[in-house]
Design brief:
Largest sheet: 6 strands, mixed
Radius of gyration: 58 Å
Number of helices: 0
Structural class: mainly beta
Order of helices and strands: EEEEEEEEEEEEEEEEEEEEEEEEEEEE
Number of strands: 28
């Protein structure tokens, strides 16, 4: 049996091993105790540390120019289900036994510092942690995770002090940057600046419009805000069940101008603007109706439109059943229609007026189908013009008060034959031509029974004239029993003599009475 030679610590000279060193379950230890480095039969290396304030494993290099300070290179070929860990940090902390004791443990610390001045034209890059995971083929079910965090997942502890990732990046830098595997120059970024101001951005290196930000959420998306006292309140949410945007009561959708916003108190919707509110739809606008068929349609069974000056001064428009429409003014307000052109009222059957219809200017006219059918007021005079009849269907009297009712007389100068159309007026003045007798014919009868007057005047020179009477469609009865040419009055024949003959037309025939011998 070979002898074992004991050598005191510090007396081992530098030498080379000529064969493998077998530890046989022992440790390479600084103090000879059961801690330090031990090597398993399969080549696995364990570093065991007792309670200490020093580092359990310290790898120090002062001039690393290439390569790695620590390399873990593991390969396998799997034929059965298994779970492996390349780096395993297993830390079990005993309880803190004293009041006021602070214990903070960090599983992995990466501390990198650039402590010297670099050349102005150099490039210096430091990456704290780089994880490259990939597969050479896509066979089977592949599940890759760069980082998998489980922090206080059992629910033990104070959730307000638990963070999955807690990072601090230079102000103005990008806190999180996720690059696209399709194009590494396209990315999504989160930046946090002073006061917690945070920017979420998507960048398309081609400056296109495909850098979308998509929220694919099964529940509601809720946005909250902190007011001055730090209380977090809901501002709005995207309601996934109703497919709608929900704005909390009293909150606003504000635009560039703070005076322009939309808000609701849970009952009323308010739309405010410091200037105009413009609606520019390509279709129609409906209020109370889902299928408007005009530029603006308002559906309501009561007043549809109210225009107000104040609480008591207003006008309303109300459309009732059967399309009956009423325009109402508040107080004792007037309703003024002041068109540049004509005011056209097209009643289906009639136009009805209430107590008064007042024209305030000197000249106004109401027309029906053109100037041939009109009522005109000129400087206080009322004129009716029509190509047909004017029927007065008064059930009472027509009272002219202290005024007179005047008629414009028809007039003609005799030429031997005069035909009178009594529908053109119930007064007719005929001046005989010198020494010419006249054939007087009643060519057109009045439409209705009426009184008629015929003034006959002799010429200012020459022999007196006589008249013969002819009826186109009636009989002329004279007082005393004659008709037409029988029993007619004998006219005055003196120079400028005037005879007045009045007729009553009963709708069929004429009845004449003569007043003779007026010396004009």
């Amino acid at each position: 049996m070979p002898k074992t030679r004991l050598i005191s610590p510090g007396s081992i000279p530098n030498h080379k091993l000529l064969k493998n060193l077998q530890l046989q379950g022992n440790y390479i230890s600084n103090d000879g105790g059961d801690e330090g480095i031990t090597i398993q039969d399969d080549g696995g290396v364990s570093v065991t540390s007792a309670t200490t304030t020093n580092d359990a494993l310290d790898i120090t290099t002062t001039a690393l120019t290439t390569g790695s300070a620590l390399v873990i290179d593991a390969d396998d070929s799997l034929t059965s289900a298994t779970t492996k860990t390349l780096v395993n940090i297993d830390y079990d902390k005993s309880g803190v036994t004293g009041s006021g004791i602070t214990n903070e443990t960090t599983g992995l610390v990466i501390n990198m510092a650039d402590t010297v001045t670099n050349h102005v034209n150099s490039f210096v890059g430091m990456i704290g942690l780089q994880i490259d995971i990939d597969s050479s083929n896509d066979d089977g079910f592949l599940q890759h995770r760069g980082i998998n965090l489980n922090v206080a997942a059992d629910g033990t502890g104070d959730a307000s002090t638990v963070s999955g990732i807690n990072m601090e990046v230079m102000d103005g830098g990008i806190d999180i940057k996720c690059k696209s595997s399709a194009d590494s120059s396209d990315y999504f970024a989160i930046q946090t600046a002073a006061a917690g101001a945070t920017t979420i951005s998507t960048v398309d290196s081609d400056n296109g419009e495909e850098a979308n930000l998509t929220f694919d959420i099964q529940g509601d998306t809720i946005f909250k805000g902190d007011i001055a006292d730090g209380t977090s309140t809901e501002v709005f949410r995207l309601d996934s069940s109703a497919s709608s945007l929900f704005i909390a009561s009293g909150k606003k959708i504000e635009f560039a101008d703070t005076g322009e916003y939309i808000t609701s108190d849970g009952t009323d919707l308010t739309m405010a603007s410091g200037a105009d509110i413009l609606l520019t739809p390509t279709g129609n606008v409906g209020i109370g109706v889902s299928d408007p068929d005009s530029a603006l349609e308002v559906l309501k069974t009561t007043t549809q439109l109210k225009l107000s000056f104040d609480d008591t001064s207003f006008a309303t428009v109300t459309v009732a059943d059967d399309s009956d429409t009423t325009i109402t003014t508040g107080e004792s307000g007037d309703l003024t229609l002041d068109p540049v052109g004509a005011l056209i009222l097209e009643g289906g059957s009639s136009i009805q007026m209430g107590t008064n219809f007042v024209f305030s200017a000197d000249t106004y006219a109401m027309m029906w189908g053109g100037s041939s059918q009109q009522v005109e007021i000129t400087s206080g005079n009322l004129q009716f013009t029509t190509s047909g009849n004017i029927d007065c269907n008064a059930t009472g009297e027509i009272d002219f008060n202290t005024s007179t009712a005047g008629f414009t007389a028809q007039a003609a100068t005799g030429d031997g034959t005069t035909t009178i159309d009594w529908t053109n007026g119930n007064k007719f003045h005929l001046l005989f031509a010198a020494s010419t007798n006249e054939e007087i014919t009643f060519g057109t009868n009045p439409t209705n029974p009426c009184n008629l007057l015929l003034k006959l005047k002799q010429p200012s020179s020459g022999a007196g004239c006589t008249a013969n009477w002819t009826m186109a469609d009636a009989t002329l009865y004279w007082v005393g029993g004659g008709t037409d040419e029988t029993g007619e009055p004998t006219l005055s024949t003196g120079v400028n003599d005037v005879d007045i003959i009045t007729f009553y037309f009963d709708g069929t025939n004429y009845y004449g009475v003569a007043s003779l011998g007026f010396d004009a």
